[in-house]
Amino acid sequence: MARRYADAHRLTFNLDLDRIRDLLGDWEGDPHNAGLLTRAAALAAARVHLLAGHDVVVPQFLGRPQFLEQAEALAAETGAAFHEIVLFTTRDDAVYRFAARPASPPLPPDEVAAMYDRLAELLPSRPRALVLTTVHGREDEAYAALVASLGT
Q1: What is the pTM (predicted TM-score) of this model?
Q2: Which of 61, 63, 115, 128 is the most exposed place for a label (fewest CB within 10 A)?
Q3: Which domain holds residue 62?
Q4: CATH number, position 87
Q5: 14, containing H or E segment
Q6: Cα(72)–Cα(11) distance, rounded to whole angstroms?
């Protein structure tokens, strides 16, 4: 959905953290520090793009609030609007979708299930997040709701 949104909105930066992380040599040997470096690089890139007056979309499965809080602070600092949108599905569908996507390395189903549980636990602490329920095979409806929520 992020790619689709970026393609439809000129110069929107589809800031995929997984792609940035994959640029780090042997990140698998130190995934914790790789994650910290990836998020720092993403925020620096987002700052440049936002200051240039363009949108940034961060398609990321997040189950911890720190990066969200940093991104929200960056938006405020640069005068950009911050929209937190959670595309939510069932636990089984999340496991299925992660298994179907290319990843390096692929995530085991139990790890995806644990990530899903962290996200579900986080949501009550993020009252301004817009939660859009998605259903596999009905992505067009979810995308329409996403665009409508942004007013674009």
Answers
A1: 0.87
A2: 128
A3: 2-150
A4: 3.40.50.300
A5: strand 13-14
A6: 20
